[in-house]
Amino acid sequence: MRQRLGRGEFAKYHALGNDYLVVDPRRLGFKLTPSRIRALCDRHVGVGSDGILALAPSRTAQFGLRIFNPDGSEAEKSGNGLRIFARFLHDHGYTDRTNFRIATKGGQVDVALTLRQGSVHWIRVAMGRATFVSSNIPVRGRRREVVDEELATDARRFRITCVSVGNPHCVIFVAHLDVDVLRRFGPLIERHRQFPNRINVQFAQVRSRRVIDALIWERGAGETMASGSSSCAIAAAAVRRGLADRHVTIKMPGGSLAIEVGDDWALNMSGPATPVYRGSLC
Known about the structure:
Radius of gyration: 18 Å
Strand content: 35-45%
Largest sheet: 18 strands, mixed
Number of helices: 4
CATH architecture of the largest domain: Roll
């Protein structure tokens, strides 16, 4: 591609089925208001996507990124979104570098691109450090590490481990995955009174010390085929609970991501991102 977006243009990418529109707000003829974001993401009367990634200025990194959920709210961080955005920057001539830094609302991340015949093949993102401390996630109650706690909904109780990787996550380890359980309880847990900023929800089944299957309910988006930050949260929670090694593959309906959990809880995520098309907004 190697051509920057023109006036009114956008690019659409997906990362393991999790799709985003990427825009340069300077080239749009309108502001990204919540109502406009909802309209663009609508799969029936809009372009359709799991969110919008917007290029933003940054004083501390080579690039800034704002991440919008399809309900119009703004997310702190997205692993899939970061891989998509990193590839977009290279694909469309915003950078020729294969190593650079992106500033998000959830912190700065370092990105490394692997090229194959001049095209981006693989993206590695340093996602920051995981924390289980309640005030950092946040989770209501006394300050503590939220590890293997009980959470009660109206109909069922769950054992949860909560973690922030720059955005908040609630990981539930189960013996068997059930998409009906995800769809029923995902929205209830996302908006549970314990989570003042709402929360991403993951149901995870440990297959081995190095492989975990997962279903994901994403805050502000609902059921999603894959999530990079959720994969990081699952891996960190599994290591914290003693259920997995520090190099683990998270398998989701949309595909798999490789996650490394450092001794200092630093997280590295590796996986693909794929262009879908480029278009113009009327």
